[in-house]
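Section 5.1 Outputs to date
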Amino acid sequence: MKRKKSIFAENEITMYRALIILLFLLAEVKLLSSEHCVNYSFTQLSIEQGLSQTTAQSILLDHKGTLWVGTKSGLNSYTQEGIKTYLYHSEDPHSLPSDYINHLAEDSLGNFWIATSKGLALYDDEQDRFNTVNTSIIYSSVEVEGGMWFGGENTIHCYDYRSKKIKTIHIDKEEGKNINPVDYRIQKMLYWEDGKILIGTRRKGIYLYDCCNQQFTLLIPHGRSLLTSLYVTADRHIYTAFYGDGVYCYDRTGKMQERYTKENSGLKSNYVLDMAEYNGSIWLATDGSGINLFTPRTFRFSQLQHIVGDYSSLPVNSITLLYKDMKGNLWAGSVRGGIFSIKETYIKTYKEAILNNTNGLSEKSVISLYEEKNGKVWIGTDGGGINLYDPSTEKFTHFPSTYGDKVVSIAEVSESELMVSLYTKGIFLFNKKTHKYRPFTIVDEETNNKECFYGYLPLANQVADDKIYIISCGTYVYHTHDRTFSRMETDRDYDFSNDALCLSYSNDKFSLLKCAHQAFWVDQQSDSIRLLFELEKDEFITSMSYDNNRTIWTSTNRGLGFFDLESQKFHRIRTKLFNGISFLIADGKGRLWICAQNHLYSYIIKENRFTLWNSSDGFPPNEILFAYQKQSDKDYIYLGGSEGLVKIDTDIPTTETQIPEIYLSEILFNGSSSLKRVKENTIEIPWNYNSLSVHFRIKNRDVFQKYLLQYTIEGRSKQVIETYEPSLNLSSLSAGNYSVWVSCNTKNGNQTPARQLIRIIVTPPWYKTVWFISTVAVVFIVMTASVSYIN
């Protein structure tokens, strides 16, 4: 009996272990799947945006939020005001030592260092100029206790914060004149642990330098090829890359663990130029194969690469450097494409590609959409005919037989045919297999001519599996199962002559139509039309959506509102973020997506909170023209616009609230920098000045975020100015005291608290000053008294 119990217990344990292993494998598969599905957006800065040269040598985001880019021809700074370029000028001792920038660094004191091919310079922020501190060539740097170390040719230049002096340490002291300093060039320096510095040389291996006993120890010998990258991961593994030799992994003692090449792994190129750790993977910059991602936990490689015709792909494939800034953002520098930020995104935009290229649309302007139950999306373009998008492969199919057509609506008649409306041509049936049209007649020839060619545009709208609403001058129901027509009836006569009647939303129970300032309800059972609500005659409804909470969300040329089906009242949502809205749609998860003035916003209904999404989130400026009225897949929303197709993952996480920091960056008085004249937040200027402009910087995680700034100028009166410009022109102030308060919007639509950033005192002319008037008054009184005394 005991033996049976023992066997039973052993079987239980075995089954339990098997279950644990199975669950682990399933979890691993899920993790791998999720890793594969991550999308990234890339926001680029290159010569098109004003960068001085296309090859990026170094990137730095400083503590004030200014982005610096060192190139082979100049240093560039990027702020909300745009790009400013610094170059070497032989006649100016305070210009850069050279235009060729090797390396950029910022120390713990906020000093900004620029290493050039002809020396090391320190940036003077107040004077906006450079002071050369060393004429040696510098390639790398590391921060140590009490100072900064800079790597050169067989030398480390040690800068001490207290003395502000530089001393030099040589790596190899024994070989003397026989050594080649270039071989000992310090390509990389990284802080290791316990006062030790990891030093990577060009050809002579990787050393550990002990700051306490001032000794070098060769940790990883390697002399076969050039060191291109050195990186230490969070778990203290050392990764190195040598030119054309792949990637090596070492433990903390310098023992090699693995070597990865394109021959023995998923690495796509043996030419790895830089590395960075980001999102649980080691990112590898390659020369020609984009960015390779290595996940140590799974030993798997993946790739980000530039794909011709795919607007959302990596901008270029030759990547020179990777840089992770203090805010945790990842940047990449390239050989010919400048730099770009890398950001995980849930929004993706597809633009046009050449005909039959599967990575983009046949024409970028999308004017109609229809989503099948299997998730595939039929797309009507403005002149490029019909496209089909398959979300499982993220590929497009073009149909050359339709090229040149403006497809203004799409609906499904059967599994093999679509009903499409072509601008100026009428309605046709499109065969999915043969890719050919065949004519379609609305009711009869007379009715068809009236609805298609008498100045009206017939639109086919799928409202049920067996029912299509055809709306033009008249309103018809086409029953696909028996191919018959019926009329949609109205409860009374309405005037539809001023604007077209359009379907805006549909579900299994009802549809919503709009016409100018009026909204109509259509019952799916009876197909009867009745007025739901109407606004003022000069307010036009642009779109409507339903959020399953008895609320009809409505966008107009004046903004956002909703109609409550319970109270039968219309309510407005007030915001300063936008005025007119071109399109909105509810995602079924408590959020509205709003397209206004070429920007994209989301609105969390319960929290009454807006979020702005921009180019770095995957949404470049785009005028949204259309989205489907009957949504099949709740996981994605598709929007059609003049600048491409937008795909939104509705599982997008709520963004964290970031409070931007606004500070005074510059004051230009009569064209000259006058920041040094500011004392205790106050500047004094004479009444007869010619020009005065005040400049501000906004420090936040996303350097590409656009901010609506609100300036409040308090003086004799109060003036409020709202603009996206981070500068204020104050060239016409009369004598008096003025305070400038500044605030801006946050990403979630709130306003930061206003801060007084500058106080301006405009002094009056001498003859209007208090002392002069007082003196004149005293003199006048004395003279008057004297005359009286004489008399």
